[in-house]
Every structure is written in C-alpha cells, then in structure tokens.
Amino acid sequence: MHAYANPARFLSLARPLTGWLLWAGLALVLFGAWAGLTQTPADYLQGETVRILYIHVPAAWLGMGGWTALAIAGLVQLVWRHPLAGIAARAIAVPGMLFTALCLATGSIWGKPTWGTWWEWDGRMTSMLVLLFLYAGFIALANSDAGDGRDGGSISRGAAIYALVGAINIPIINRSVVWWNSLHQGPSITVRGSSIDGTILWPLGFTVIGFSLLFGAIILMRMRAQIAENRVRARLRRLAEDEGA
Amino acid sequence: MTDQWHFVIAAYALTVLLTGAVLWGSWRAMTRAEQGAAAVQRDRP
Questions:
Q1: Which of A25, A30, A157, A224 shows its CA 20 to 30 Å from the CA of A210?
Q2: Residue A62 contacts by C-beta under 8 Å, 6 or more apart in sequence?
C-alpha cells in the first residue's frame, strides 16, 4: 500500500484502471438490468416490484461499503498520514452518499406498492437515513477543511475521527432487522445461502459487481481530479514565490 | 402495463439519472483538472 503513497505511482495505475472499471461496470450493470427487467419471472408475492431488488441491493451495499472504505481511509490518514488517504476519503464521500440516497429512494418506491407505505421509522430505514446524514456531515466537514488552507486535498484529524466514529452505524444497519421488529425482511442473502429463488437471484450478481466497478471508477476519477488540482495549485504557488523573491 | 411497472420504471429512471449525473460530473471534473495541470506543465518557463 505504501508503494502507492506516491501520487505519480498511483496515477500510473489509476489512469488505465479508470476506463476499465467504467466500461466493464457499465456493461455489467446494463446486462444485469436488462436480465432483471426482461428475463426473470415476477415474484409470486411481490409481483413485478421485485425487479427493484437489482438496483436497491447494490445501492445498499455501496452505501455501507462506501462508509467502511471512508473509515479505513480516515484510519490510514490518522495513523500513517498516507498522502492519498485523505484524497480517497473525500473522493468516496459523494458517490457513497449518492448510493445511500438511491438505496433509500428505491426502497421507498418498492415499499409503497408492497407494504402500502413510502416510509416507516423502523431500525433498518432509520439507520440507513442516519448514514445519509453522516455522509452529508462528512462532506460539509471536509469542505470546511479545504477553506482553512489545508493543502493537498487531505482531510483534518477531526474529519478522520468523524469517519471512524460514524463506522459504528454500519453493524447497526446490518443487524437492525435481527435486533428490532421491522417491516423490512430479514437477511435474504447470508454466507449459508440465499432465501431468494435462483431464477430471480442470478441478475443480482451482475448489478452488484457492475455498480461496484462503477463506484471504483467514480472514486478514481475524483482522486485524479484532486491530484491534478493539487499540481496546479503547487505550480501557481511556486510561480508566486518566484515573483515575490 | 400494470401499476407495479410504474414503480419499477420510476426506481430505474432515478438510478440512471443520479448515477449518470455523478459519473458525468466526476468525469468532467477529472478531464478539466488534468487538462489544467497539463497546461500549467507546458507553460513552465
């Protein structure tokens, strides 16, 4: 990992990887969505709305996975002061918030015809909403850091600690359907198998992997943008210093 | 088309719109920033 602490070395890997992740992700998502919309049967209970599963589950996975990655980046920033950790944390926040919002929105759209309500203040939905607010708080905190003259697109110690503390919410989201009575169904996919029938389940693998690759592509794009902005800023500062001397 | 399909289409349309917007915004930010960095590098005295 430390080998890639050097932005130049990181860019040599990120440049070719961005396109690969983007196009492979798009292809997998499009195939999974096409299969989910046209090739799988309607569920005997939920009917056609079961097809929302193919975007709702990847969105939930990436909202939670995004914060886990953000907390790891915060830890690396705190302990090793890795120059790319803060940049990575910033890059993760916006797509992480996007997928959390998509999870809540698609879940709500699914809930109306299935449960008869757009929203219920139960453990799963409320803890997911807390995650959305955590992302918003992190983005606000990271942007306020940028205003205090912090160079290199890194994050402050406070933002890194906030990312770590916020990670407490991840196991709460995961276990919420077990700990509390909920409208939301229990865990459908576990290490022991799935309660979803195979004829409905199979496109989900394509959309989960596809959206994950897209998430990776978005993070790399945002990190590359930050690194390029840092270079411009450093160059302009050097020019200003030369003129001042 | 049943009513249920309206909910499915709404969910997919929202996903395409929001994911597309973040993808497009990130791509534009990256290309603009990298072009700016390349220009600064070129103008080096």
A1: A224
A2: A95, A96, A99, A211, A212, A215
Percent of chain A exceeding pLDDT 90 equals 64
Q: Answer yes or no: is the ipTM higher than 0.95.
A: no
d(CA B13, CA A114): 19
Adjacent-strand bridge partners of A47 = A43
| A11 vs A235: CA distance, rounded Å | 18
The answer to whether the CB atoms of B23 and A218 lie below 8 A apart is yes
State whether residue A15 sits within 8 Å of chain B by CB: no
Question: H-type helices in chain A, by residue range?
Answer: 7-38, 53-80, 83-115, 123-146, 157-166, 169-179, 198-244
Question: pTM, whole model, 2 decimals?
Answer: 0.91
Coil vs helix vs strand at A51: helix
- Residue B15 is nearest to which of A102, A231, A235, comparing CB atoms? A102
Tell me whether residues B4 and A49 touch, CB distance under 8 A: yes
Which whole number is the average pLDDT over A38-64? 93
A26 vs A35: CA distance, rounded Å: 14
Count H helices, E strands: chain B? 1, 0
